[in-house]
Amino acid sequence: MDEHKNAEGLVREFLLFRGFTQTIRAFEADLAADVTQGYQVEKTMQLVFDVYIPRYQIEKLAELMDFLSLSLFAPGDSHCQATARKLHTGLKRFYLVHALQKGRMDRVLDFFKQYGGNLLNEGDDWQAWFALPYVKDPSSDPQFQVYFSKDWLETLMVSFRNFLCQFFDGIRFPALLKLISKRSNYREIKQQLTQSREKCSSLEAELQGKEEEIIMLKAALKNQLTTSMESSRLTDGDIDISSVEKTSDLANSSELSTSRESGSVAFEPLTAENVFLLEDFTEVTVRSQESFSGHTSPITRCRFSPTGSNIASASVDGTVRIWTYDSSVSTSRNATIYCGAEIMSLDWEHKSGRLLLLGTSEAGIKAWNVDAKRVVCDLSSNQAFPRVLDIKCSPTDPFFVSAECTNADKLGRRFGSLSVWNMKNWKAWNLLPLGEDPPVVTSICFNHNGKMVAAAGDDGVIRLFDMNGYLPITGWPAHDGCAINCVRFGTNQTSIFTMGSDGKVFEWSLHNQGQVLQSYDASKFTSADGLKLPRHEMALASHGNSLLLTSNNLYAPLINFGRGRPKALKSLEHKGPVTSVDWHPHLDTYVTGSVDHSIHVTSIG
Q1: In percent, how much of the chain has pLDDT > 70?
Q2: Contacts of 250 (CB under 8 A, 6+ apart)
């Protein structure tokens, strides 16, 4: 409404400037008789049900409905026109019922005298209503008694409110209102930018103070260790001072790393081996990097939309954020979704990119429509398999596959299930067979045409399924029986990549079952001795030569597969282990999420 008032003020100012006094008076008169009440649903409802009908202003009610029909709908939109006609008919009948209930038979007779000819042309069973003034007790007459009920009135009001909500939200506003809205947004952004700069300056000063404090603590600890070693030398002989310095540096590194925490997940001490190994890796060449800090707990998953315009990210506290990293992209799809349970998996519907599927730890699968900004379907998976570990949508057809597992039994065992869901009626379609003691499926993926699904299990077996008959095609053991954390089809569709809990990455041939084409040992990044992540994952670049992995270190390893031996680089540093990764579907841009609550979008080249 503020934007409307600002626009009206600008129109008045311009008319006064041009000397259009008669136009100003007409403008003020039209504002006083504003039939849409500034496109506010509740005020329009009050105007109809509290003013026009109780005061028997049937002409104004007709003007309002004619305005809505002519202004909001295209001439060829027959469905919307039909809906408006039905609602207009319902309002006319309520007008007659209200007049009879108040004993105003004169208003009923005037209505039929004024509109009788038009009503006969409209149809809608109006012929029987011409007998209404002559029925002794219409409220008990089988033909009319439903219109005197409270339920019918409530249904009419709900339908009319929904009608107004739908079409007021979809109305195209004039350029003047858009200009005012952009100016208001510009002022807000400018104010936020000023506040962010002030906060950044404050944080930089605080960071500088902390760095100086760390330097002083290191020096004090080194002096203390040196003094201690010199004292022990009197009894134990000579000790090389260089070893003392190295021990001091490692102690400082361990002390600092153990003091950091992120939510409920703590950092494990970095070992000397990992520290020196990380120094041997070259950082990727970065063209730009954007950071997003909208979450308040560790990140569990982050995924680019099919076009790459939006990113969906989830955190341990059950919050999902949809956002964009590119300032040139509209923020109309930005949203925050509170699911009330940990988000274990998410994926975008590929064909339209309008639906985001969310899998929770409490047997929930939600479908969020990014345009309507609401949950369009809230499914419940099998209660025996409450943890929805992964979700993947078919790239070609309206269905998706979900991987669920049970909670651990007394012996610590878990069992898995693979379900196929129809996205047209949102019902479970089929189950993919996993055997008598079904293993937990940790990761699934479709091939390029959606005809085949690969599933990775905690039993270390890769399974391929035919999605035409929902039957297994083949399978083979991998990673020497260790659980497989993630599986991805190669971009050339002739190979498949797996990442095991042993930290090894293999590229397998699809033509020669069990043949390893290339391999890389990433255990230095994914060692189980460090931080326990929800589940390690990997992402394959669109050009098919680069594989990005999650990591227990502060960096995500980027492995370049190609001719010769695979080469690994490291991403720019997070402040905590990297828990989720994904590649842009078309560009050399990737996203990384961390337990430090932050997300980085990095463009390389």
Answers
A1: 82
A2: 272, 275
